[in-house]
Amino acid sequence: MKKLLVLIGIVAMFGTSAAFAVSVPDPLDPAVMHIGNPPSTGTYLYNGNEVRPISNTYLGIQENGNGQPALVDPLLMIIGVPGADSGYQAPSITLSTGTGAAGGANAYSGTWNVTTGYAGSFGPAADDLYDWLGLNPSGNASNRFVNWHDADLAVNNIDAAFFGIFVYTLNDTMITGGNTIGVTFGAPLENGTFVVAYGQDSRETPHSYTTPFTEAGLTTTPPVPEPGTMILLGAGFLGLAVWGKRRRNA
Question: Residue ranges of the Ice-binding protein C-terminal domain (predicted)?
Fold first, then answer.
């Protein structure tokens, strides 16, 4: 009887070990949100494998990985504009699926102005962007000021002292693994603007889905002046030409 009990104990021990050996998805390694035109395409702009080029009027947000779960509302799109303060007006947006706007109710423990989306100045003393915004759970920690600064300096010759952060809330996107949401801006983004995204799934203990620095989007084309500005510039050049001609004829 004693030998039988020992045998049962050994079997139970190995059975327990086998149960603990079952693979469990890592909650700190979710699918990442790629930004691009379209996402996951285009030559990397920095260091050969970091930062994707985006247009200043359109981009795509992709939840990378077929089979990954659907994300809940809202999906957050976050832009970092070099040198911008609370007076900057974040452009309106139109989505391929759903609706979105700068601001919106604070979510996931993050804080920003619910009307303008302005969240403050992201500078050298800040932690990585997702922690700095207060989002919980946080996300990929590679979006640090020094990375953004150095990439913008190398790509656009912009030596930013800080980035003004603006948060957009996107609803009814129904984004899920492998899907892309198109974002069209009502006015061009400033040159040197970074764009990343943040989302959560619907698990009892939600996982965050975030953009690593390698897949962040960066604008590289200065906005085209508005028609009114072009007219004023043209009138100015015409005036200078007339003034110069009069001087020569005097």
Answer: 223-246
Across the beta sheet with 33-36, the strand order is 33-36, 58-63, 180-185, 93-95
Is the residue at 243 inside a domain?
no
Query: Does 28 fall in a domain?
Result: no
Q: Look at the chain and report how many structural domains it folds into.
A: 1
pLDDT, residue 247, reads 53
Query: What is the torsional sign of CA 109, 81, 195, 25?
Result: negative
Euclidean distance between the first and the last CA atom of the chain, given in angstroms as a whole number = 124
Could you give the percent of the chain with pLDDT greater than 70? 77
**Domain coverage including residue 47:** 33-223
Return the structure tokens found at 68.
């990954």
Residue 6 lies in a domain: no
Q: Tokens for 27?
A: 């909650």
3-state SS of the chain is CHHHHHHHHHHHHHHHHHHHCCCCCCCCCCCCEEEECCCCCCCCCECCCECEEECCCEEEEEECCCCCCCCCCCEEEEEEEECCCCCCCCCCEEECCCEEEECCCCCCCCCCCCCCCEEEEECCCCCCHHHHHCCCCCCCCCCCHHHHHHHHHHHHCCCCCCEEEEEEEEECCCCCCCCEEEEEECCCCCCCCEEEEEEECCCCCCCEEECCHHHCEEECCCCCCCHHHHHHHHHHHHHHHHHHHHHHHC
Single pTM value for the model: 0.80
